[in-house]
Amino acid sequence: MAGRPVDHRRRLELLDAVVDYAVENGFSELSWRPVAAALDVSTNTLVHHFGSKEHLLVAILGRLRERILAATAELLGAQHDLAAAARAAWEQTSQPARAAEFRLFFAVYGRALQAPEQFADFLDRVVADWMAALRAAQGPDVAPAVADREATLVIATLRGLLLDLLTTGDRARVEGAADRFLATLARPED
């Protein structure tokens, strides 16, 4: 006899609540009972919707990546040059209100790197999503190799700056470095 089917709308609601819980409480100590208690559901409900803790972790990674991309994709897509797109991405991701979300992002990124086979989808897409948006922001006249190089530089630099900001809290120093970097994007080299 087959179990009851998963209600995908309810699964997404639960997943968003679990991601919110993980943003607030961290990723390393995530376990069924505390999550279920915080969401006012049974552990069986979580198991029904996610199957296993490993599946839940994969779902959290994917949803977190989707949230971060959604929060910046509209800004990136609205820009018509790399410098403006990179500045919009930096301003959105470095907001103090987003700090907990990005702490979780870096924690799960590290977890995914430690178990690449388990988190292959996250790893495949965490850079590719941004690459596509930043390539597009450069316009169709930029050579693909140049667009890839510039997009890679933006992703790596902004993530490094954000990690520094989250680690040190030294906003003035990191913002100064971000401003300096963003100024270099006004005219990419060939």
Top keywords for this entry?
Regulatory protein TetR; Tetracycline Repressor, domain 2; 190 residues
Would you write up a description of this structure?
It comes from Pseudonocardia dioxanivorans (strain ATCC 55486 / DSM 44775 / JCM 13855 / CB1190). Residues 31-50 bind DNA. Residues 8-68 form the HTH tetR-type domain. The chain is mainly alpha-helical and 190 residues long. It has a single domain (8-186), classed as Tetracycline Repressor, domain 2 (Orthogonal Bundle). Helix content is 76%, strand content 0%. The protein has 9 helices and no strands. The chain is elongated, with a radius of gyration of 19 Å. The N and C termini lie far apart (63 Å). The model has no long low-confidence stretch (mean pLDDT 87).
Give helix and strand order, one letter per element, not per position. Answer: HHHHHHHHH
What's the CATH topology name?
Answer: Tetracycline Repressor, domain 2
Number of domains: 1
Distance between the termini: 63 Å
Main sheet record: none
Strand percentage lies at under 5%
**Overall pLDDT:** 87
CATH superfamily: Tetracycline Repressor, domain 2
* CATH class division: Mainly Alpha
Summed up:
The chain has 190 residues and is mainly α. It has helices at residues 8-25, 32-39, 43-50, 53-78, 82-93, 99-114, 120-137, 144-168, 171-183. Keywords: DNA-binding, Transcription, Transcription regulation.
SSE diagram, text form:
Elements: H1 8-25, H2 32-39, H3 43-50, H4 53-78, H5 82-93, H6 99-114, H7 120-137, H8 144-168, H9 171-183
